Amino acid sequence: MKQSIWGKILILIGAVVGALLVGALLLLIAGANPLVAYRAMLIGPLSSRYGITEALVKATPLLLVGLGIVIAFRSGILNIGGEGQMVIGALAGSACALALPDLPGILLLPMTLLSSFLAGAVWGGIPGWLKARLSVNEILSTIMLNSIALQLVTFMLRGPLIDPQEIAYGTGFPQTAQLPEQSWLPRLIPRTRLHWGFVVALLLAGLVYVFLWRTSLGYRMRAVGAQKEAARYGGIQVENSLVLAMALSGGFAGLAGMVEVLGIHHRLLDGISAGYGFSGIVAALFGQLHPLGTIPAAILFGALTLGADMMQRAVEVPAAIVLTIQGLVVLFVVGSDVLMRRPDFLKRLLGKRMMPIPEETSQEEVPS
Amino acid sequence: MDQREFANRRIQHMEMCDITKQFPGVLANNQVCIDVRAGEVLALLGENGAGKSTLMKILYGLYRPDAGEIRINDQTVPLHSPNDAIAQGIGMVHQHFMLVPTLTVVENIVLGLPSSKGIFLDLDVAAKRITELSQKYGLQVDPWAYVWQLSVGEQQRVEILKVLYRGADLLILDEPTAVLTPQEVDELIPTLEEMTRMGHSIIFITHKLREVMAISNKVTVLRNGQVIDTLATADTNQEALARMMVGRELLKEYDKAQVTLGETVLEVKSLCAKDDKGLPALKKVTFEVRAGEILGVAGVSGNGQRELADVIAGLQQATSGQVIIAGKDVTNKLPAYVIDAGMGYIPEDRLHTGTIPSFSISENVILKDNARPPIARGPFLDFEEIARYSKRLVQEFAVKTPTLETQVGNLSGGNIQKLILAREISREPAFLLAAQPTRGLDVGAMEYVHQRLLEQRAAGKGILLVSEELDEIFKLADRIAVIYEGQIMDILSIDQADREHLGLLMAGVTQAAD
Question: Is B224 within a domain?
Fold first, then answer.
């Protein structure tokens, strides 16, 4: 019934290899040597300190968003609004840091992170509340809120929060002033961009695990996610659980946005979410919706993203092909899920081919 | 015409010989032999897990036997897939319907079949044939109705038509009556008789003895994967079959302890509620249950029983009236409040309401107590305590499971019900509501559930038993309330009640009208 962890890992690796094989065809069509391309993509991120640290830099927001996704999905509600929650979190956190420039770092940093978490929680909590009270489809509402959030941040960056210097120089580039230095997340390794946000994300992964599997509240949220009717029957308030799940999920995305600001850019600018709100979902699914599984998944996708950049430079193929290959990886990985949930499926698939067919009757797959 | 049709059946004699099938850890079938001839109904009788379903899946080509062979008209036939089985004239009606609710009856029936018009559907032609078939066999159903509009009984007719449409001579019916109301069962019987008259053979899987006696010509009893005996139905009786099936003597009557009635634990006062469609489902329902008694609610399914149970449990809103549990007004309160007031609830849908199938046994045991000490220590769950508690419950209630971490969805129906009983009874509620507590259970498990409920009665709990099985109510209840179209027709003490009178009340006929 239950598959060993190694079996699962093997299936995941198989899925990635399958995606790369199909991607190789595309590369051939584009006139690039797949071997050179994949060498750059797979070996590149691992071959230097720069590569490794950059992969972890990209893994950090993936992991944070992914943790929120784990909480939401496990609680039975789909959060597709990571993008919006990220930028709203980053907006609130940046505003907080800019408003209190004289506070010492030991106070300012936690306050900044907390305000980003709360802002993301509100932005996530809204669709949660709409779902719980009014049965509004959360996929629609979260996606709509993404657009609102992005527009809101763009407005703030062009108006109220724009860097005074941009106005002074007349360039008008939409970004805030640099945040006070004491609020920045310190670098983990000097002369790389890897910052303490990665460590924070790792600690939070452990925390989410403990929360979901070791506390009463987490148990209740998982119960709602697994079987709403039974949870209600058991005296659990399903509506509250949904709102809380979305709020926490949004909070983690908000935190991811602020960690990007405090760790990398040190100011809020347009496009800070960079698609992490969506790819975080993939990382969480790849990690089997388990907080600890999401850690390697986020690192893998961080490395793949970086590797794709490197590949593009190495073989000079259009960026679209790189995106396509990433998409293929996602498709194959999500598709491999069926093999994990139904181990017999693989056996049947292989069995049909390998077993000698004794009689004259042809054997077709049966639609039942 | 019948004679000719009879002789034209491709399957005149089907035998399964020495079938053995081993699953990891279980010998599901051990040298099983059965046979059935054209025009015969063979009842395959056995408890859950006796190997009936495995045997039928082998016959339908879903599993391959490790040993043994299947012969049709004395010739060995290879059945490697359902397509092979269908080609041989074997059809199967599954217990859980395989229909697409958003398609019409005719669309469902032709699904997967080639059309006479190439890539275009020939629905009109098909509908005509379906109408012919349904007239021939007495399976009334509108081919153009959508499946979601049909009742469970009608959906089953569609399933049977689907199989007949594909030209099946031998029909396997997997527990066809488990989902039917008594009336629908009565309607199914003449259909089966009609089919046998036309020369079809039928294998009827069941664990209900009454149906075996009513429907079959021949019965094969399976226990632990082995054939205990095969005999002509006319030569046996229910008691003998029950003994063979369970492997021990069953109690005919239960000993009911003398209990002095205590305080009122449930009071329902002119309760009204609506159903899913917004129509009145409960109309001024009034009754009470006292400590130490079992009040049975008898009625045909769909007369407000589900709403009654859900409103009492706080899972559904009452539009007016009052529910009082152990002195506390719980009308329209949250389920948690009702639980705290002292209610235990064995819900009708044991797999999706009573338990969380993807959660482990331990996780299901703590469903109602996850935030209470000693299960919870502060905000955290105490896993040692949970393991200890679950282990105790599993042992006390004889839940058969490999481990405490096993997912509940993998347990058999009887074991799931035992687990729910264990959880609900161990919480020591003042009032226990048991809704259809033995539906779909085999006799052994049924007896177990009954004994446990009587034990609770003797321990001074008040029990409301909602059941469609009159037998069950007669065995357990002290008083009987008959519900019809959301109204309580009458409440009778068990000494005054007789079946005929109850039957009339259940059909909405009051004494006065007689």
Answer: yes
Q: Are strands B320-325 and B328-329 parallel, antiparallel or unpaired?
A: antiparallel
- B509's tokens: 């006929």
Cα angle vertex B152, ends B148, B154, to 5°? 80
Helix (H) or strand (E) holding B313: helix B305-313
Q: Do B145 and B281 belong together in one domain?
A: no
Domain boundary among B194, B212, B246: B246
- Mutate which: B97, B370, B385, B420, vs A, most A CBs within 10 A: B370
**Same domain, yes or no, for B162 and B275?**
no
Q: How far apart are CA B353 and CA A176, in angstroms?
A: 52
Q: How far apart are CA A236 and CA A225, in angstroms?
A: 12
Q: Shortest CB distance from A227 goes to which of B112, B335, B352?
A: B352
**How would you class B81 by CB atoms within 10 Å of its CB: exposed for 0-12, middle for 13-18, buried for 19 or more?**
buried
For residue B73, is it left (φ>0), alpha (ψ between -120 and 50) or beta?
left
Residues β-bridged to residue B92 = B172
Q: How far apart are CA B214 and CA A27, in angstroms?
A: 70
Q: Are residues B442 and B312 in the same domain?
A: yes
Alpha carbons within 13 angstroms on the beta-carbon side of residue B12 total 8
3-state secondary structure of B323: strand
Are B144 and B279 in the same domain? no
Is B197 domain-assigned? yes
Residue B361, in any domain of the structure: no
DSSP 8-state code for residue A46: G
Q: Which two tokens stand for residue A144?
A: 């709509």
CATH number at residue B219: 3.40.50.300
Enter the DSSP assignment of A85: H
CB B494 within 8 A of CB B478: yes
Number of domains observed in the structure of chain B: 2
Contact (CB<8Å) A223/B347: no
CB B122 within 8 A of CB B113: no
Counting one residue from A and one from B, how many pairs have CB atoms under 8 Å apart?
90
Q: pLDDT of A293-309, one tens digit each?
A: 999 999 988 988 888 88
Please give the ipTM for the structure prediction. Answer: 0.82
| Residue B409 identity | G
The first and second tokens of residue B111, run together, are 């699904």
B49 and B129 share a domain?
Answer: yes
Q: Look at residue B417 and tell me if it is in a domain.
A: no
Q: What residues of chain A, 193 to 252, have a C-beta less than 8 Å from chain B?
A: 214-217, 219-220, 222-223, 226-227, 229-237
Neighbours of A98 (CB within 10 A): 19
**Inter-chain residue contact B367 with A361, CB threshold 8 Å:** no
Query: What is the distance between the alpha carbons of residues B489 and B299, in angstroms, rounded to a whole number?
Result: 10
Q: Which of B219, B246, B273 is the last residue of a domain?
A: B246
Torsion angle defined by CA atoms of residues A191, A194, A197 and A198, in that order, rounded to the nearest 10 degrees = -150
Structural domain including B466 reads 264-349+428-513
Alpha-carbon gap, residue A82 to A255, rounded angstroms:
11
Both B117 and B181 in a single domain?
yes
Based on the domain organization, do B8 and B95 belong to the same domain? yes
DSSP 8-state symbol, B461: -
Same domain? For B269 and B235 the reply is: no
CA distance B468 to B344: 20
> What confidence tens digit (pLDDT) does each residue in B52-107 have?
888 999 999 989 999 999 999 999 998 888 889 999 999 999 877 889 989 999 99
Q: What letters, b where the CB count within 10 A reaches 16 and e where it falls short, cover B119-151?
A: eeebbeebbebbeebbeebebebbbeeebeebe
Q: Which stretch, A108-122, A158-172, A320-334, B486-500, has highest mean pLDDT?
A: A108-122
User: For chain B, how big is the Rg over CA atoms in Å?
Assistant: 25
B313: chain A residues, CB-CB within 8 Å: 233
**What is the predicted pLDDT for the residue at B502?**
85
